[in-house]
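Q: Please design a sequence for this.
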């Protein structure tokens, strides 16, 4: 058990005896890029680093060597990091840490990636746009031991994090397949029914294909009236009021009053996720960014939810700066109408199947969260010396 001492910094805690705390200004040089907009290319020769986790491509570079890149402002400020060793270019509001002295670049990358956000939360760096000022970066405290130990820690974390990331990606791929399977199950049930032996006929609708003989093809407007919700300003929405407020991407927050009472299907009207479908019950506020569905004939509401989900309404969004759906266009779309008894059967079947799939997805999402938490904990403990990385035997 190695001897420990107080680092003098609360969020670092104890560090090994023999380690020291040094300010970042003494460990590297820090500059920023000089480009705002660029002519990016799909097949550009060199990576161009921006303030988000995304990496673009261009045909020129301004730096060649080992560096750590950090977003300087925007939503990724102090939280988006890249370790690079080679030719690249970068945005003017991205910090470039390089020319490392007495410290391993890869060790510092792991140290900053796990710890710098704590400095942001500790300070008053947040304004209308999150930002990291250079003095804060220069004064950031770094715990470090001798260079050989830093190298061991970096190598250890490379191996461990690669394995953890591979496990996470495997789970995410599995989740994607489950979600694809869920959509296939829904589409097959709402377009073909549950009886594989029933006689079929051509629906005349390309995405639907053949349907059971006893089903009808109708326009959505004959099944339900659709209307945008009521306008609401952001200052009315909070997290402490009673009634949920739903917008184009689902729940936005809460308000002190409501526009609807009962059980309704809501369709996202605006935003990147427009076309998403929810059933909402109770007292709630439907905002102008959501489409409220009012059934005009006797329908199984859950069946209607499933067939709307199968219609992939997002494909009908306009390609404006803010994607959106036109209510009139959606109501003109063709859909299916099985007998009410079959609607009940399909809804019950899909409830059972989708619940099982959703539970499997939830378990994998929980596992991903645990793996991510383990990774963060492992990095923190390694770069603050709370676990000792032994030297490899010759």
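A: Design:
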């Amino acid at each position: 058990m190695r001897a420990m001492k107080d680092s003098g910094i609360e969020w670092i805690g104890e560090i090994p005896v023999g380690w020291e705390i040094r300010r970042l200004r003494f460990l590297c040089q820090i500059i920023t890029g000089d480009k705002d907009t660029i002519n990016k290319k799909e097949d550009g020769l060199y990576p161009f680093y921006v303030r988000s986790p995304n990496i673009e491509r261009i045909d020129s570079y301004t730096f060649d060597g080992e560096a750590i890149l950090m977003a300087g402002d925007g939503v990724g400020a102090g939280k988006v990091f890249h370790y690079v060793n080679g030719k690249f270019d970068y945005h003017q509001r991205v910090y470039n840490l390089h020319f490392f002295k007495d410290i391993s670049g890869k060790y510092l990358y792991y140290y900053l990636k796990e710890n710098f956000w704590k400095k942001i939360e500790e300070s008053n760096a947040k304004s209308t746009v999150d930002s990291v000022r250079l003095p804060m970066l220069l004064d950031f405290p770094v715990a470090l031991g001798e260079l050989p130990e830093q190298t061991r820690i970096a190598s250890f974390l490379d191996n461990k994090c690669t394995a953890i990331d591979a496990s996470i990606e495997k789970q995410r791929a599995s989740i994607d397949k489950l979600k694809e399977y869920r959509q296939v199950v829904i589409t097959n049930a709402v377009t073909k029914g549950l009886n594989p032996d029933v006689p079929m006929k051509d629906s005349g609708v390309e995405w639907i294909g053949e349907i059971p003989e006893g089903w009808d093809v109708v326009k959505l407007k004959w099944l339900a009236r659709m209307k945008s919700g009521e306008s609401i300003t952001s200052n009315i929405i909070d997290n402490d009021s009673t009634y949920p407020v739903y917008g184009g991407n689902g729940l936005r927050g809460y308000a002190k009053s409501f526009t609807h009472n009962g059980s309704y299907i809501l369709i996202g009207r605006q935003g990147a996720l427009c076309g998403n479908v929810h059933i909402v019950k109770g007292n709630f506020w439907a905002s102008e960014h959501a489409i409220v569905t009012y059934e005009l004939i006797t329908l199984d509401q859950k069946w209607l939810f499933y067939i709307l989900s199968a219609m992939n309404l997002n494909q009908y969004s306009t390609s404006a700066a803010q994607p959106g759906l036109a209510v009139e266009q959606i109501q003109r779309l063709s859909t299916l109408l099985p007998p009410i008894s079959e609607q009940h059967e399909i809804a019950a079947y899909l409830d059972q199947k989708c619940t099982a799939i959703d539970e499997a997805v939830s378990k994998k999402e929980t596992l991903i969260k645990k793996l991510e938490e383990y990774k963060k904990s492992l990095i923190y403990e390694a770069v603050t010396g709370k676990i000792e990385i032994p030297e490899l035997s010759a």
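Q: Thanks. Anything notable?
A: The chain has a mean pLDDT of 92. The domain at 216-337 is CATH 3.90.220.20 (Adenine-n6-DNA-methyltransferase TaqI; Chain A, domain 2).
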